[in-house]
Amino acid sequence: MITRIAFAFALATLVSGNSFAADDPFCGKWKLNFDKSKIAGQQMKMEELGGNKLRFDDGSVTDTIVMDGTDQPIQNGGTMALTKLGPNSIRMVIKRNGKVASSMVHSISDNGQIQTIKGTSTRPDGSTSDFNVETKRVGGGSGWSGTWESTEVKVTRPDEFEISTYGDSGYSFYVPAYEEKLNFNFDGKDYTATGPQVTPGSSSSAKRVDRQTFDMTEKLKGKAVAETRFQVSSDDKTLTETEHRPGQPKPMTFIYERM
């Protein structure tokens, strides 16, 4: 889950632009209002396997990692290293292009019902953001094995991004802290983002709904991993991003305010 959470905040597939259209409701700079956003409720299935292995499954991506402290490839790009710190504690380090993107400690409560994830993400521009995620066990299981659902998510530095026009009718998304860019048109075709932490094999396509709304499909190696709606309020001051991911019981809702 934390790989999904740590990079969901980055909006890793969203990104870039040069021009600006003052009369377009989407164009401009936006900052995440974390208090108004609804990010909790996401689930991650974990399973302890033989050979000191731990499997993660968020409904769209599955990774199996040996808990020996070594960097191992993950489907979302980069590597993950797991180190046991004790019977109820694991350190996780995620790297992109050999550089640490996030480091965190997963801890299970004495009664085995709560998992806490505390860590720090490091952006390509060198800035950092601390995060704290509380999860609860949903259903059965023991130890690390089971389904964990987030109940509270906190970060110290919400993200900012910019939208400008692209081509005849498309947009450019740009996230400065992550140095990520995505130019796309509303033609249903797949477009690939660029940046040091962009997942290899990822792409996005978009369709316009109306002046204030458009939908985007995110794919990983041709498979849809998220369906997202972007909608600007009638006063053009608030941008709502509602993201649905396969296997998740509820969407994530990110609320951005115009800067």
Structure write-up:
By secondary structure, the protein is an all-beta fold. A ten-stranded antiparallel beta sheet has the order 4-3-2-11-10-9-8-7-6-5, with helices on one face. A nine-stranded antiparallel beta sheet has the order 14-13-12-1-19-18-17-16-15, with no helix packed on it. It folds into two domains: about 130 residues, Lipocalin (Beta Barrel); about 110 residues, Beta Barrel (Lipocalin), CATH 2.40.128. The N terminus is likely disordered. The two termini are about 30 Å apart. About 5% of the residues lie in helices and about 55% in strands. Strand 15 and strand 16 form a beta hairpin. It is globular.
| Structural class category | mainly beta
How large a portion of the residues is in β-strands, by DSSP E?
Answer: over 45%
CATH architecture of the largest domain: Beta Barrel
pLDDT averaged residue by residue: 91
Q: What is the tally of helical segments?
A: 1
Strand tally, please? 19
**Lateral arrangement of strands in the main beta sheet:** 4-3-2-11-10-9-8-7-6-5
Overall outline: globular
CATH class of the largest domain: Mainly Beta
Write down the secondary-structure element order. Answer: HEEEEEEEEEEEEEEEEEEE
Low-confidence stretches: 1-20
Distance between the termini: 30 Å
Determine the CATH superfamily of the largest domain.
Calycin beta-barrel core domain
How many distinct folded domains?
2
CATH topology-level fold name of the largest domain: Lipocalin
Give a quick account of the main beta sheet: strands, pairing sense, barrel closure. 10 strands, antiparallel
Helix content: under 10%
Round the Cα radius of gyration to an integer and report it.
Answer: 18 Å
